[in-house]
Amino acid sequence: MNTTSPVVDTSGDIPAAATAVPAPSSVPDAPASEAQDAKPAAAAAAAPLSARSLLKQLQQQFPAFGKCLPLSIGIDKQLLAKMPELDRKTMRAALGIHTGSLRYLRAMEKATVRYDLDGTAGAEVTDTHRLHAKETLQQRFKKEAERKKAELDAAKAAESDRLRQEKLQLLASKFSRH
User: Fold this and answer.
1) SS3 of residue 58 by DSSP
2) How many CB atoms lie within 10 A of CB 6?
3) Complete domains list, the chain, with CATH
4) What is the pTM of this model?
5) Is residue 20 exposed (0-12), middle (13-18) or buried (19+ Cβ within 10 Å)?
6) Which DSSP symbol is given to 48?
7) What are the angstrom distances between the C-alpha of 129 and each of 15, 124, 125, 133?
8) Is the CB of residue 140 less than 8 Å from the CB of residue 90?
9) Is 21 helix (H, G, I), strand (E, B) or coil?
10) What is the pLDDT of residues 28-66, one digit of tens each?
């Protein structure tokens, strides 16, 4: 009698019918480690790249990313044409990380031309896009300055509190002797 026990796959990668495995009692000669080894290998092969690792790959593969050149509008379509296996959500996240980086924004602020994946010059960078990059940089620097000021104020307040506590301790020790 050869029975199978259905295994429910919650990942959604493998149809439920394909997940039925022989019950351990029905196949005494099959090592359990073989079934366990097959699952991680399949999961690793199906695991998508993270946005940061995809960005690293794009920087190595395409000059426009590696040199942090202003990207042409519609670069996502060019990427999908060259790399159709890309997950759109991961690709957009990687593009967001890249185009939001200080290095890219600084390049956009001074840029006159956009580039395709191969580093070939294309359309001009509009004044609106340059201004947007400049404003984004200014906002970031302002937020960073505010954060540092708040950090400094907190440190000053802590030091002031510490000195006040020391003075109180000195006064308490001075008047407790008598």
Assistant:
1) helix
2) 10
3) 51-125 (1.10.1710.10)
4) 0.58
5) exposed
6) P
7) 47, 10, 7, 6
8) no
9) strand
10) 444 444 444 444 444 444 456 788 999 999 999 898 888
